[in-house]
């Protein structure tokens, strides 16, 4: 059992004893704390709720909705939905906030409460800390009988989300339709099975096959859209001579593609390709987190823009995008954030922009991929003993590599010409994550190996 309380939401495995897993008591406690803060902010009483296709989704939804109603709030229940759709619904409805019931790419035993502010964005660190504090106090007063809230079910937001994408100035449905693409979608047994085909149909894509299309929450494979989890999709694209494959995670905020020969386009390159297209139409800056590929920086500078790195985490990417007025941004895990639509990772707008780019390029998806620089990211970690002073080790690393450009916004990122290594601690595990990138896999691995040896030596010196 696991329960992870963070400033952006509550995540845990279903079952167990309260405080050790995401039990009904924990769901009610944290929902109530969030609801009280919504009421205190005087932004109205309307709260949007939506969920992905997880097995536990209906149960968690019942608990969340009833708790909000018990506080006197007006709940708009979207039912089965996506993270970006709930985010957009908050803005469309002028709601005071929203709760998305999804554990994103985590396995089926997990679920979570993702908490939104009145802008349809993840709550701030300050608000998140207040939610955690209030939940532990358990000093909450619920509404009396004549002041109970209301529950309204509304399934119109999928179409409203799609309509907003079709109205996007950089989405060209006619260009996509003219290509008569044959597409295979891996919906991983969640709401992408409904939302992605509906979007493709609206874009004029007539030939769509869906793998793992039953919304059961019994994920057919590990739901994180990484190459090792998408063998079925890769094989099916090649076998059926499809033009491309599309994979999303259970809440449809991450996106990756498969080329016509069944090879992965690369989740890091989803954002690179979309940014390339957006920047070709609209000059400006870009943002991704510090652990994402350098290819975005290369493409941005080629278009005359400036690239900025942010701390890891969607809320940090959004904050940096606003700070530097970025025209596109996101995360290298396939998360596209287009501020012209909303400030949240959105696989649906990512699909529309990517297909428009592909159609207008006149290339196949494999040929499009070859137009971007090739980089390889090596992902590693070192487990830590509780006695290890990570701050001291990071200071020693900074001293050793002081002649190199160093960014300390989120751990330490060291640049070596076009290569880099990023070290950061985990919020949930006693580890240091070490990500490194180079234009060859061997060099990327060697950079990581060198830094890991440095860390181990420093750990031994401090014993």
From TrEMBL:
Pfam families: PGM_PMM_I, PGM_PMM_II, PGM_PMM_III, PGM_PMM_IV
One term of GO molecular function: phosphomannomutase activity
Keywords: Isomerase, Magnesium, Metal-binding, Phosphoprotein
Ranges of residues in domain Alpha-D-phosphohexomutase C-terminal: 394-453
UniProt keyword Coiled coil present: no
Family named by the database record: Belongs to the phosphohexose mutase family.
Listed name of the protein: Phosphomannomutase
């Amino acid at each position: 059992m696991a329960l992870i309380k963070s400033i952006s939401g509550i995540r845990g495995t279903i079952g167990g004893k309260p405080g050790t897993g995401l039990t009904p008591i924990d769901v009610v406690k944290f929902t109530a704390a969030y609801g009280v803060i919504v009421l205190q902010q005087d932004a109205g009483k309307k709260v949007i709720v939506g969920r992905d296709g997880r097995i536990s989704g209906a149960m968690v939804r019942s608990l969340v909705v009833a708790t909000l109603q018990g506080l006197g709030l007006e709940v708009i229940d979207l039912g089965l939905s996506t993270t970006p759709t709930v985010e957009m619904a908050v803005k469309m409805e002028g709601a005071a906030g929203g709760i998305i019931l999804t554990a994103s790419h985590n396995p089926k035993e997990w679920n979570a409460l993702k908490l939104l502010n009145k802008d349809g964005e993840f709550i701030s660190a300050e608000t998140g800390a207040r939610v955690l504090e209030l939940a532990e106090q358990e000093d909450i007063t619920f509404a009396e009988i004549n002041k109970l809230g209301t529950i309204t079910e509304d399934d119109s937001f999928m179409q409203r989300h799609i309509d907003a994408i079709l109205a996007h100035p950089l989405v060209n449905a006619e260009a996509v339709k003219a290509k008569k693409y044959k597409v295979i979608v891996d919906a991983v047994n969640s709401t992408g099975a409904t939302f992605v085909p509906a979007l493709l149909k609206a874009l004029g894509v007539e030939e769509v096959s869906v793998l793992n299309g039953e919304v059961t929450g019994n994920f057919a494979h590990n739901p994180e859209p990484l190459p090792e989890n998408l063998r079925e999709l890769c094989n099916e694209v090649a076998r059926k001579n499809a033009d491309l494959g599309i994979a999303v995670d259970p809440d449809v905020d991450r996106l990756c593609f498969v080329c016509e020969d069944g090879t992965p386009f690369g989740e890091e390159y989803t954002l690179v390709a979309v940014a390339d297209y957006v920047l070709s139409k609209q000059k400006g800056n870009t943002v991704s987190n510090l652990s994402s590929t350098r290819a975005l920086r290369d493409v941005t500078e080629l278009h005359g823009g400036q690239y900025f790195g942010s701390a890891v985490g969607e809320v940090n990417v959004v904050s940096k995008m606003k700070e530097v007025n970025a025209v596109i941004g996101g995360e290298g895990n396939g998360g596209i954030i287009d501020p012209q639509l909303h400030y949240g990772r959105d696989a649906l707008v990512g699909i529309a922009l990517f297909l428009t780019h592909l159609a207008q390029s006149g290339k196949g998806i494999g040929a499009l991929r070859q137009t971007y620089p090739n980089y390889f990211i090596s992902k590693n970690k070192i487990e830590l003993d509780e006695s290890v002073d990570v701050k001291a080790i990071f200071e020693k690393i900074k001293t050793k590599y002081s002649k190199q450009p160093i960014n300390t916004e989120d751990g330490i990122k060291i640049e070596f010409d076009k290569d880099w290594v990023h070290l950061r601690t985990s919020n949930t595990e006693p580890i240091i994550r070490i990500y490194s990138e180079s234009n060859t896999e061997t060099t990327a691995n060697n950079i990581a190996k060198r830094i890991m040896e440095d860390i181990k030596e420093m750990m031994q010196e401090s014993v």
